Every structure is written in structure tokens, then in C-alpha cells.
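re: that complex we talked abt at group meeting.

here r the seqs, copy pasted straight from the sheet so there may be weird spacing, ignore it
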Amino acid sequence: MALSAYDRVKLARGGKRPTGLDYIRNLFTNFYEFHGDRRFGDDPAIVGGIAYLRNQPVTVIAIEKGHSAKERAARNFGAPNPEGYRKALRLMKQAEKFGRPVICFVDTSGAFCGIGAEERGQGQAIAENLLELSTLCVPVISILIGEGGSGGALALALADRVWMLSNAVYSVISPEGCASILWKDAAQAETAAASLKLTAEDAKSLGIVEEILSEKDLGSQSFYDSLQERLCEEIRTLSMETELLEKRYERFRMIGKCRRRE
Amino acid sequence: MAFLNFLYKPKNELEQGGRTAAPVQQDQGEPEKICPNCRKSSPISQLWANQLTCACGYHFRMKARQRLPYLVDKHSFRELFTDITSGDPLLFPGYPGKLETAQTASGEQEAVLCGRAKISGQDCCLFFMEPTFMMGSMGSAVGERITRLFEYAAEQRLPVVGYTVSGGARMQEGLLSLMQMAKTSAAVKRHSDAGLLYITVLTDPTTGGVTASFAMEGDIILAEPGAMIGFAGARVIEQTTKKALPKGFQRAEFVLEHGFIDAIVPRSEQKQTIGCLLKMHNGGENHGSVRL
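got the structure back, here u go
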């Protein structure tokens, strides 16, 4: 039987999927993790550093949710604070300086909703990432590996290529949040999930992602091998692109459907 | 019990025989509005004479078009992109009805008003978000209008002045709304890289996806007194963290103290301030010349 949109949401949230660090360990070698935003602190919900993709140095940034209950708590359940986004931006600017492509793995229910997060400018941190990513002069590929929760996910996904795992979801708001705002009833999350068009197929048909990655053998060596091959191929293509920023601008410029009034 | 009257203390001004409010010129039967801050009632005409602000300093919410006469030079405003409005791209339940209600209630076709005008003789592009149109939420049409405004301003080499008020991204357009944050930010960056000035004025409330994109991307970020400015909603934060929120949380004064806005400017000073800022930037363009 086909999975409903809400089944996908539950799958995307499930604790059994590979998380950001699993991708880093299996796709790259020589990963050096770099900590801190040089402004306030180090956010454990975002992991970043440099590594080799085969023999190509790349900058890797991943939102990490953790597997065990203990890990999840330590990673703040993959809900980044402003310092996480600022660390990511610092590493992206560094990638630009040294001409390294950037690969992001996105998996978050959303940017953290907390007092400290607001005091340290959560909105400003996300806005700045969007602003800077739009003209970052190196190829950027973002892969949604689980939950793509709103602005907190987009802050690492203003990229030349955005890919999604087949059971990942990408949404402007959680289905529960949407249902409770619109219908004052979180139990209608199922209807909301279907209406929000948050599955990988939806995102592809809306022109928001280029590619859906099959979850056949998710987490196995062959899964990582073929993903590694696809990443190498795409980075080769993007590094030959002479109008990288122009095309990135157009990629997002096209998105949106309006009605033209006479 | 009349003999106990000497023990009685009046509980409020009304029991004392009423408060002595300043006399105001008022039509008989003119409607009044109660200020949610000081609880005083003022006749509408008096509030309008003060640009919809109470004597206590409280700023009432203002519709986009109502700001024009207080801000731009007479007859200088030319509206742009009026042909772009919202459709129902995801066939979201109840959305067309909501759009219709919003259009009737606000008298606007969309949640943002764009145009070009002069402020104190300075040419500029302007946008004003509309609080009575689905709380200024950003869907494809808002994103498209704002993006076009920045592209137009870059082409015409004009500064942009933008008034924000928004509940965030419009969930009825799902991912398409979310992507407007990326689209508008990229347009702001191009305008900025062309050396042009962008001033934002954050008004009550500026939240969610608008805060996390073009509201916070101004070269100069101003705010109205008391405006609620934040990313996540206060109620959501309370539920998530189960902690009491600090006093004045997410108000303009709090956000100023934390270093995220440049200044709080009351409505009565906005025209003069913005006009002066535009002038100090040579009409909003970097000429890099020293004039000593």
C-alpha cells in the first residue's frame, strides 16, 4: 500500500534512520570536525568540518539528531541554535576562500524555539545564511535526509542542487502546528500533512528539489557507494559551471505560483 | 450601612468622580478607541491626528496604505506590481475563501503594497506589509512582489525602504511560501551588492519567515516602539521550554538591547529620520567620494 504523507512524516522522524554523522562517516575520509561560531559558542546540533570526498577536499555540514536518547538530548534533538547557523556560515565562507565545494545534510524539525535562541537572534542568523548562501562562489549541494523543518532547514539548503531521500519530508510548518493553527485541532495532522505537500515527490513536482534518492538498502555500503558516486558526478558538473551564481539565483527566482490579475 | 462610609476608600478614578482627562475637540457620539497599554479611551480623530498613536506612546497597528500620507511626499507614490496576486497553487482546503475574506477585509489584493515615491524629496522604492491581509503572511505573491521591487530598485539604482508586519510564511502555500524566503533574500543580496541602501522598519508583529529573511537583512534596521519582533512565537517557546518568558520578551526595546536593531523610531519621527538617512547616503547610493 502506498504511504500517506503523514506516514512519511513519521518515517522521517523515526529514530532508526542514518543521521548526519552516519553520512559523514560513510561518504568521506579524513573528516576533521571544526567547532564554534567564534561569536558565542558551539552548537552540538550542527556538525561541520572538512573532509575528502574521494580525493576532493570538501566542506561538510550536517544537522545531527543523534540515535540514542542520550545522544538526542545532547544534540538538542537536532534543533539548532543561532550559533549553529553561524558556525555553518563561518565554515561556508571558509570553503569559499579555499575553493572547496560545500555539502550539507539537513535533518531538523526546525530551528530551536527557545528564549536564548531568540535573545541571540535566531531569525537574524537564518536570514544572514540565506543572504550569504545566495552568492557563495563555490558549488553547494544540500541533501534532506530526514525532516526538513521550515526556515531552520532552508538555512542550509539555499543550494545549487537540493536532493531528498524518498521518505524525507520538507515543510513550511509541522503538520501538527498547521492543524492546531488552522483547525484548532492537532489531531488533524494527517489532513494537514496531505495538504501541505511535503513529500519528496511533491517537492520535486513543485521544482524545489532536483532529485529523489531511493531508500532501497538505506544505510548499507551500496547505498553510500552510489550516493558518493552521484555527489562526485554532480560536483564535477557544478565546478565546470561558468554561471554558477546566475543559475542559483534563477533556481529560486522561478519558485512560486501567482495569479496574474488583468 | 451609610454610617460606615468614612471607612470607604474609592477603588478607582470613576468612584472618585471620574478621571480628569484632557479636554478634546470631539464630535458628539464620535467613536472612541481604548488603548491596550494605558486603558484610556481616546476619540478616533485624536488618534489619527497623532498617526494612530496614543498619548502614552502606544502605537496602534496601521494598514499599509494608511502609512503613505505620513511618510511619502504628496502625490509622489506610484504603486507597482498590482497585477500579482495569490492563486491556490496547492489546492489547500479553505484557502480561496480565506483569500477572498482577506481581500474584502483589507481592501487590498495582496499582503504587501509596493511602489516608488519620494521621501523628503529623495527617490526610493517602498514596500509596506498589510496586517489585515492574513496577518501579512508571505506566500508566492508577496515573495514575487518583494523580489521584483528589489530587482527594479537595483535596475533603477534606488534605495529600498520596507515596513514589515507579518505572522511569517503563509502555510496554505506550503513549501512555495518557504522558498520565498530564499528568493527574496537573493534579491536583497543583489541589490546590496550593487552598493544600494536598504532600510527596514519592523512593526508589530514581525515574526517567523519574514524575520528570518528580508526583515533582518536591512543595512539599517529600525523598529516601532513596543513592536513584537521574533522568530518563534512566544506561546510556542513557553510550551517548548516550559519556562517563564523574561519581561518585555521579543519587544522592540528587548531586541534593541540584544543588539539586533539599530534604533527605535516613533511614528512621528519616521519621515524625518528616513528622509535624513536617505540624504546621508546620497539618495541611497555609494559614491565613495569625500566631500570636505
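couple things i noticed - Residues 29 and 172 of chain A are 34 Å apart (CA to CA). The beta strands of chain A are 29-33, 46-53, 56-63, 102-108, 140-149, 161-165, 169-171, 211-213, 258-260.
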